[in-house]
Design a protein that fits this description.
7-stranded antiparallel sheet; globular; single chain; mainly beta; 2 domains; Jelly Rolls; about 45% strand; 27 strands; about 350 residues; 6-stranded antiparallel sheet
Length: about 350
């Protein structure tokens, strides 16, 4: 193993291990059936631990949802969620009065900042066909000075996200979806204003790589202090600097070295997370991420007193109408439609 380039190899579980400035990554993949009139699954929900259903049964999970799968209203404070939806849809509502529906390649970049409530439900919009869902949710920390930012979100619509296509001399293709950062001369859409990723000197990169069989790609040298992790989540075998890596493994890589990745005989799908560390203390309890234990206690006190502005939507598991389409309605009244 080239120990100056590959620093660690680890098997992936449900929640993937990350490094500063990232806090957590989860990969959701559920084979939801046809939807019913409530936009929930037409299948029976008997035998599930509804409200805490994290075990795959009949190909899917309900998570905290009881009628519609997903995550009813819950609080966050002090960090950002970057939700990359590869397939399916997410309905968003939050305590600022914002709402939306996004999916099929869209990315929502949510700054929770000084605190907000939001819900993430997975509406099964199709009654005449299955409703598969696949998404990543990445938690990105905020620097201490930005933990009091106003909660807000930014949409990176699928049609606008840069896609890099590389073809080698043998005609093998590599495709990279650049969620944030710079790669192969391309620059991503601008992330949220309060984000650690907003400053290009922080070298935050989030990108998805698809390698055709026998295709390859080289990650550039960035900096000695960069934290860089590769998550090989679907495929068979890739080679990183000549070392065979099986699917469902992560690889920690040196940030100041070029890294050559070549694929084997089956299509490979990879998520890369990289960035300069924030380098500040992290105090985390559930959905609150601050820098000291006292700040965590203060956050809970504030939530109990204010509910971070309260919940204006009635149901905690609210969804949009079936035919709503993709849109974002922000707390200031601004509307984006796709």
């Amino acid at each position: 193993m080239p120990d100056n380039k590959i620093l660690n190899i680890q098997k992936l579980g449900f929640q993937w291990q990350t490094e500063d400035p990232f806090l957590m990554t989860v990969h959701h993949k559920d084979a939801y059936p046809q939807g019913n009139d409530e936009l929930g699954p037409i299948a029976s929900l008997e035998g599930r631990n509804l409200g805490e259903d994290f075990t795959i049964k009949d190909g899917f999970r309900m998570y905290h949802g009881k009628a519609v799968p997903g995550f009813p209203a819950h609080p966050h404070k002090g960090f950002e969620t970057v939700t990359i939806v590869l397939e399916g849809f997410v309905d968003h509502f939050d305590s600022t009065g914002a709402s939306g529906r996004y999916g099929n390649g869209d990315v929502q970049w949510l700054t929770t900042g000084k605190g907000c409530l939001h819900s993430e439900m997975f509406p099964l919009v199709h009654k005449d066909q299955d409703n598969p869902l696949e998404l990543f949710q990445i938690w990105l920390n905020l620097a201490a000075k930005n933990k009091t930012a106003n909660p807000d979100y930014k949409m990176l619509w699928a049609e606008d996200i840069p896609v890099i296509e590389l073809t080698d001399t043998a005609g093998k293709k590599t495709t990279v979806r650049l969620i944030t950062g710079k790669l192969e001369g391309e620059t991503s859409l601008e992330p949220a204003a309060a984000s650690w990723a907003h400053d290009p000197n922080h070298h935050v990169g989030i990108y998805l790589i698809h390698l055709e069989p026998e295709a390859g790609v080289t990650l550039p040298s960035v900096s000695k202090t960069l934290n860089r992790n590769l998550y090989f989540y679907q495929g068979k075998t890739i080679h990183v600097e000549g070392t065979a890596i099986q699917a469902s493994h992560s690889v920690k890589l040196a940030g100041d070295q070029e890294i050559e990745i070549t694929n084997g005989s089956k299509d490979a799908y990879i998520l890369v997370l990289e960035g300069e560390p924030i380098g500040e203390p992290v105090a985390q309890y559930g959905p609150f991420v601050m820098t000291t234990e006292q700040e965590i206690r203060d956050a809970f006190d504030e939530y109990r007193r204010t509910q971070f502005g309260g919940w204006p939507w009635g149901r905690y598991d609210r969804v949009n109408e079936r035919e709503a389409g993709r849109f974002a309605r922000h707390g200031d009244g601004r509307v984006e439609e796709r």
